[in-house]
Every structure is written in C-alpha cells, then in structure tokens.
Amino acid sequence: MDLTENLKHARRAGVPLVAINTPDPRATMGTISKAVNGDVPVVCWDCISNLRPVNEAGRKALATVNADDADGNPVGFLEVASQLPEGTVAVFLQADAWIMEPPVVQGIWNLRDPYKTSKRMLVMLASQIQLPPSLRGDVVTFDESLPDAEELERIAREMDKAACDGNPNRKISTEEDIVRMVEGTTGLSSFLAETAVAMALRKDGIDFDHLLENRYGMIEQTKGLSVDREKMTFDDIGGLGQIKEFGASLFNGPRPPSVVVRIEEIEKAMGGASGDTSGTSQDILQVMLSSMEDFGWAGVMAYGCPGAGKSLYSKALASTFGKLSLNLDLNGCKDSLVGNTEKNIREAMKVIQAIGGDRVFCVATANRLNTIPGELKRRFRYGVWMFDFPGQNERDKIWPIHRKGFDIPKSDERPDDSDFAGSDIRNCCELANRMGKSLKFASQFLGPVGKVAADVIRDSRKLAEGRFLSATHPGLFRLEESAVGRRAVDL
C-alpha cells in the first residue's frame, strides 16, 4: 500500500502514534490531508510557526484550546495536543530534532492511550526518524517514497505549462523532452524535482546538461553518495575479457540494470561489523542485506590483486552502456552520533532505490575477503570474480591504451614489465610524460606491484583457486592459467 492507504488503514484501526520518514514534509502534509476526509481536523506544529491549522476543521479544533501554550516548545505542544477534540490528527514537524529528549518521549507516550480511545492520531514527520527504545513498541512507522515516474511526469508537464504562462497552444517541451526530464529527476524529492526542471527550462527548450548537473548535485547532498562523472569505458581497459563479456551480455539483455552502484574496498567498511560496540557497522551491514534482498538488487564482488583493474571495471561498466554510476561510500555514511549513521545509510538506500528500483547493479571491490560476512557475499549473487595479476597478453593490450592517453610514441621502448600490474603501466606512462623522459627511465622510480605485493598476490590466487570466477578466462579461476606469461610472482 502507498502512504495514503496506510494512513487510512491506520485511522480505521485506531492507531494513535505514527512516524513517517519523508524526503519532503510539505508534500507529505498534502498526503495526510488526502488520507482523511474534510471533516477530520488536521493541525501541525513546528518550533517557528507554532501550532496552526491545516484545514478548516483544524481551525475549529484549535479554537477549543490555548494554542499559545505550544509556542516554540515541543513539550507544550504535546500538552496542548492532549486537549484537542476527538478525531484530530496532530502533525509534529521535524520530530527527529526532539525525539530523544526525555520530556518529549514522555509527552508522546502519554498520548498513546487517550488518543487510541478517541480516534486521535499524532503523526511525527522527519527525513529519517530513529525512535528511542521506550517508544519502539508504541509507534507505527511508514516511509514516504520519493516520487515515481508518474509523479515526476506530472511535475515536468506542470512546469512546462507554467513556463508557457499557461498558454495551452504553446509548448517548450516535446514528448521526448518530458521522458528525458523524468529520467533527469529520478531520485529527487518533489520539491527538488520542481526546482531542477524550473532551472533547466529555457525559452527555446531544455538545458539537459544543466538539469543533469543539478540532479547530480542534489543526489550528492545524500551523505555517502556521489555521482561518477568520469566517462571511462571498456575500451580504456586492457584484458579482463571474461568479465567484460559478462557485463556486455547483462547490459544488452532484455532487462538491463538502470544504475550501477560502486562500493570501493568494501572490506574496510565491514571490518568492524563483528567488534563494533557502537553497533553502527552492524546496522550498515543489516541495511545493506535488507536492501539488496528486499529490492532485488544484484551484483558482483571484484576481488584480487592490487592494481589489477577492479576499480577500473566498476567505473567503466556504467559509462560503457550509458547508465548512471553512483559511488556508495559506506564509511562516509558514518557519523560520530549513532543515530545519524543509521539515518544516513537509510537515506542513501532510499535514494538508490528511487533511482534504480529493482534494476540496481552493485559492484563491490575487495582486496581481502576475511572481514566480509558470508551473508553479504551471497547478496552479490552473480559471483565473486578474481582479478588476477595481468599476464603478458594482457599487458600487451594495456600498454597501447596508456601510451595513447599520455602521448608516448610507439618508438619509446617499454621496460621489463614482468612485475607490472595495469596500474604500474599507467603510472609509468604518466611519469614518463611528466618528466619528458623515456619509459625505461621512468620505470626506475616505480615499485611494481608484482614485487611490492607479491605475498598478497600469492594469497589471493590460492584463495581464488577453484572457488571464484575468473575475470580473464571462462569458468573458475585456475592457477595453471594464471601461470601463463607470468615470471616474477612465485605461484
């Protein structure tokens, strides 16, 4: 059921205390009004505007109490709320700012039984409300979803009409423009969608670059989320033929993902899940598990050697097929206050779900797997993939890409690269370019991954043997395939 139906059902059942997580409290106020008929008094309170009516019945209800007693004081508001007439709906705005204060907790709890017997309801609104333990058994919580495609289309058409001064014979936007505006505002609240469209409308059409940049900036207001703007594709990656073929088959299939969510070095975010006494890491883990399961999100886990292209693949996957790429920083969701961490990770999941629905594809990179819980690995149901140290054939494909990127001529002889990972090849070309020297000269200032991380490479190969999919060859990773063309790393 949507929020309107949930509220109607709650009123019929006599639910006295309700909390609503909403990205747009003003829009939710409209939803609350729609959920009750015009005879039901609706009032609301905030610390600036005090207690005020939402509808005419609410105005009559406030005439029976002394609303001034609630001026700027949540405890005063709750005391006045206890005197409101039968059937009244009282809305508590920005409730999360006050919900942990003992007098407020007590005031809310005191309303439970009187409100239940008189068909009254207290509705607490917040972007993400965390209830104190003493109220969790008494408050029913609902989520107001971000607007769907139908609502965003309505907003786009209304904004287009307003830009034409209401002239029905004039249009700025074509039907194709409307579709693109919906795509360009997915994941935003109603208010932010209106703002983004209004700023992109021009007399001669829509500035879609401006619309997208606004959208990206608004998405990035969500703590822990950022938009990948780097336009890297599979053409920028040498080797990794098997996992590139997997990605191409998936994204060219009948139900391609609509957004890629990258989680870099997931083991660092999950490292404290077993010993974190604050509970924040465990909560992040639980929210991740629930979101991937409940929303049907799929994904892969990219494991293996440092510099072997795990992050490059995750960055290139979305751009190759023209999809949005989001970076989810799980540690970036953390806050010094436990409640804020819980709020941040839930808001991030809500935005991702609004953008991608059930077509979210997650790519998590990991250099180690021992700190990642088994249940989280299983959520990445398209497998753990082993990104191995590149062989000679792969290095032969990587060098031309970075030579071109850093203007290194073909005549510049490449150094002994048997210890080079893909990242070393890039670094060698970049350094040669910046120094104005040869590749061989630049290579003497590098510490190749094959030497520096030889023990890590050996350990990751042994762990992946016969267990994980190979990013290079069909099927499971095999050491005998890994040995071909590799000299420096002892297998």
Summarize the structure.
With 491 residues, the protein is α/β, with parallel strands linked by helices. It has helices at 3-12, 25-35, 56-62, 74-81, 102-117, 149-163, 175-185, 190-200, 208-219, 241-251, 266-270, 280-294, 310-320, 338-356, 374-379, 392-405, 422-435, 439-443, 449-452, 454-464, 479-482; strands spanning 17-21, 42-46, 50-53, 89-92, 121-126, 140-143, 201-202, 205-206, 225-227, 259-263, 298-304, 324-328, 360-366, 384-387, 469-470.
Question: What features would you describe in this structure?
Answer:
- The protein has 491 residues and is α/β, with parallel strands linked by helices.
- The protein has four domains: 3-143, Rossmann fold (3-Layer(aba) Sandwich); 149-219; 234-387, no CATH class; 392-482, no CATH class.
- It contains 21 helices and 15 strands.
- The chain has a seven-stranded mixed sheet with strand order 9-12-10-13-11-14-15, sandwiched between helices.
- β7 (201-202) and β8 (205-206) form a beta hairpin.
- The longest helix has 19 residues, at 338-356.
- The radius of gyration is 28 Å and the shape is elongated.
